[in-house]
Design goal:
Elements: E1 6-17, H1 20-23, H2 27-46, E2 51-56, E3 59-64, H3 71-91, E4 96-107, E5 110-113, E6 116-118, E7 121-122, H4 124-132, E8 145-147, E9 165-168, E10 171-174, H5 184-193, H6 199-208
Parallel strand pairs: 4-8
Antiparallel strand pairs: 1-3, 1-4, 2-3, 4-7, 5-6, 8-10, 9-10
Length: about 220
C-alpha cells in the first residue's frame, strides 16, 4: 500500500542498520537482516496509522502523519514506533542508529509511467535527521536514538515515555532499551566501556537493561 502525499511540519526519524557494510560481506546474512528489518517496520506501522514509513536497503524514514496534532503527541507516537522496531531488531541481534528532527517535510507519490515510481522526499526535517546519522562529533553510536531539536512541554514530565529522554551535551537521547529510568546512568557507563570492545559488547549492554517486559 502506497503512502499518501504529505506536506507540512512534523517529526522525521532516519534509522539505519549498524554495521551493514560488514554484513554485506556475507550476502545471506545481509539479505536475512534486511528481510527482518522490512517485516518489522511493516508490522509496526500497520498497527500505528499515526506514523508512516518508507524502507530502502538498510535505511528507514519514519514521520508523524498527523500534523494537526500537538508536537507532544506527534513525538510520542514516533517514539513508540521507534522503540518497537528497535526492540524487535535487537531480539534478532541487529542494532539500529536513529536520529529525529522536527521541521518541514514533504513526500509525494508521482507515477512516471508503468514500472517506475518516483517518491520525492524534501524538507529540512529529513535532511537534518539524515545528516545527523553521519556526524562524526558527536558520532551516533549503534543502538542510540538522538533527538536533534527536542520540543519541551509540561505534559512531557507527566508521560512515562518521555522520562526515558535525557539531555546529553546539546542533544537529547531516547533510551528505548532501558526498562527503568533509574538504570540509565548505569547503562551509559557500561555502554561507554564497550567502546573499547566491539559490536557484541554493545549488543549485550543494550539487551541487559531492556527488562523482561520490553516488547
Amino acid at each position: 500500500m502506497s503512502i499518501e502525499n504529505f506536506e507540512g511540519e512534523c517529526f522525521v526519524a532516519f534509522t539505519d542498520i549498524s554495521g551493514f557494510k560488514k554484513m554485506m560481506k556475507e550476502e545471506r546474512i545481509a539479505r536475512e537482516k534486511m528481510r527482518i528489518f522490512y517485516s518489522t517496520g511493516y508490522r509496526t506501522l500497520y498497527h500505528n496509522h499515526k506514523v508512516n514509513g518508507l524502507f530502502i536497503s538498510d535505511c528507514g524514514i519514519l514521520f508523524s502523519r498527523n500534523k494537526d496534532e500537538s508536537k507532544y503527541l506527534q513525538l510520542k507516537e514516533l517514539l513508540k514506533v521507534i522503540k518497537k522496531i528497535n526492540i524487535e531488531m535487537l531480539n534478532n541481534d541487529v542494532m539500529l542508529t536513529t536520529s529525529i528532527a522536527f521541521g518541514e517535510f514533504s513526500m509525494k507519490n508521482n507515477l512516471e509511467f508503468d514500472g517506475i515510481e518516483k517518491n520525492p522526499i524534501y524538507g529540512d526535517a529529513y535532511v537534518n535527521a539524515y545528516t545527523d546519522t553521519n556526524k562524526k562529533n558527536p558520532k551516533l553510536m549503534p543502538g542510540q536514538c538522538r533527538i536533534i531539536n527536542y520540543i519541551t512541554d509540561n505534559n512531557f514530565e507527566e508521560d512515562d515515555i518521555f522520562s526515558f529522554v535525557q539531555k546529553k551535551g546539546k542533544y537529547y537521547y531516547y533510551y528505548w532499551n532501558v526498562d527503568d529510568k533509574n538504570k540509565i546512568g548505569n547503562f551509559n557507563k557500561e555502554y561507554k566501556n564497550c567502546f573499547n570492545f566491539n559490536f557484541n559488547g554493545m549488543l549485550e549492554a543494550l539487551k541487559k537493561y531492556r527488562g523482561e517486559n520490553a516488547n
